[in-house]
Amino acid sequence: HVLNASGASWNAGNIDFTGSQMVLVLKVSGVAFNYMDGLLAYQDMSAWQKQAHLKDLPSLLEFM
Fold it and tell me: How far apart are CA 33 and CA 53, in angstroms?
């Protein structure tokens, strides 16, 4: 992974997209869990869920 992320590998035309793909998967998963928490009744949420829940999905601009 480190070799593919180096400048020499980039200059040779090898592009490693796994890092950005990993971040995208983590962001989508986080939004999905927080949105599902927003569907719960407020009194049934934990303190963390009350802080992080989403009632509406964010726009693409807000998500990025």
Answer: 8
Token code pair at residue 41: 């009744």
Cβ pair 3, 9 in contact under 8 A: yes
Residue with tokens 């049934």: 44
* Phi–psi pair at 49, nearest 5 degrees: -65, -35
- pLDDT tens string 3-57: 666 667 767 767 777 878 899 999 999 999 999 888 889 899 899 888 888 888 8
CB 18 within 8 A of CB 1: yes
